[in-house]
Amino acid sequence: MSDAATLYDWQQRARQLDFRNQAFIDGKFVAAASGKTFDCINPADGTVLTAVAECGEEDVNRAVTAARKAFERGEWRDMAPRARKLVMLRFADLIDSHSDEIALLESLDVGKPIRDSTVIDAPGAARCIRWYAEAIDKIYDEIAPTPEGTLGMITREPVGVVACIVPWNFPILMAAWKIGPALAAGNSVILKPSEKSPLSALRVAELAAAAGIPDGVFNVVPGFGAVAGKALARHLDVDCLAFTGSTLTGRQIMKDAAETNLKRVWMELGGKTPNIVFADCPDMDAAAQAAAFGIFFNQGEMCTAGSRLLIEASIQEAFLGRVMHLADAMFPGAPLDPVTRMGAIVDTAQLDRVLGYIAAGQAEGARLRLGGERVLTDSGGYFIAPTVFDQVDNSMKIAQEEIFGPVLSVMTFTTPEEALQIANASPYGLAAAAWTGNLRKAHQLARGLRAGSVWINCFDEGDITVPFGGYKQSGNGRDKSLHAIDKYVEVKSTWMNFSL
């Protein structure tokens, strides 16, 4: 759709959508074995978009069987690297050519602004698939330095059947971060999207088949985490599981894997990102814009959300004033309106969770400076105003627990050492940011911050070439970059003796 598309244009396009709402197993759309479905709700108005197949253990078994048979046939696993690359490039091209449709599905399903899903989510998924496609025939195995008469080979082989369980905040982009390297390595994949956001994954499965990915190599099983997700985590014929979601769910998945076949489990979990602004920040306007963006973008439903803003005491009120001015301009609106900067919270459960944290912040003594209430109730949707607390102590719930909503906790510090202590005093370690014009201080902070991604004088920057993942209870392993492929391969050593 053109850049000049209006709210009316997107609404008209939405009325013409043909939702894919069945599981995709062994190259075909199929109903759940039980015949059960669940409603997919539009968070912008509370209406039902469609009823989606509710997969259970039997459906997971069917998908795993199809994936295992496809892997053993070797049609994808043993395909020449260049040929596999061409299939995945076609896959990326199809995502690109259906980008508006996928973006619309994302916005309808989870309430994110169409201006973001058309620029970030759908095209980002295509770029990810394309990048891993291009890597396929450019990764070499190794020959070890061995004595005369011997040969030591170090080779990478696909691990086998990979289950990917992805969240609802960036449904297709998070899926691409996992299925891209897993498919590139030659594995068979089973994708379980969140029950809150299954629609784009089911449409993309159809595009994967159209691109030439063989039957059984890519499957999608919509359903609830406690049933379909648990069945994947405990399945004896799943070799590897990659998960993005809450730390609580991650713990349960690791327990399920440990109690069954000890499948390798890769986790990208929660975060509580500290965003540290020093008085010597080289651009206060850029830092303020990044602080507002960092917590209110995507309704604050981000694992890297800059939910803890640490401001040097000497500039606290002046800087916070800039941030609140920007926050006030990000009042939520209709997700399909291209001017909307902040959309709807994904569902009533998440709405109640965020409002509960706002109440907890007030009860613990933090000062509410902005927002704090549900808005646009006449729409029938789930909207919360941008919310800012100051006078926050780092021990408070709103400073320690992941809210996953548009709630900013503001704290002050007086020295770099104090800022570092506050920043690291968290069970999470996914990301951190710092703003300073002092190069020495920047290096010290980058080394001292216990986080998988550190941004200096920027926020949430990077691309597919750099790895992404966390320290501590933010998980293990890395998405993105060539490092991600390591999660989906076995490294084999073969030692040959030619002296006999």
Write up this protein.
This protein is α/β, with parallel strands linked by helices and 500 residues long. The chain folds into two domains: 7-269 and 478-492, Aldehyde Dehydrogenase, Chain A, domain 1 (3-Layer(aba) Sandwich), CATH 3.40.605; 274-457, Aldehyde Dehydrogenase, Chain A, domain 2 (3-Layer(aba) Sandwich). The chain has helices at residues 7-15, 57-73, 81-97, 99-110, 114-135, 171-184, 199-211, 225-234, 247-259, 284-296, 316-328, 348-363, 397-400, 416-424, 439-448; strands spanning 23-25, 28-30, 37-41, 48-53, 142-144, 150-158, 161-165, 188-192, 218-220, 240-244, 264-268, 274-277, 308-312, 367-370, 374-375, 383-384, 387-390, 407-413, 428-429, 431-435, 453-456, 471-472, 489-497. Strands 14-17-18-13-12-20-21 form a seven-stranded mixed beta sheet, sandwiched between helices. Strands 9-8-7-10-11 form a five-stranded parallel beta sheet, with helices on both faces. Strands 5-6-23 form a three-stranded antiparallel beta sheet, with no helix packed on it. The longest helix is centred in the N-terminal third of the chain and has 22 residues, at 114-135.
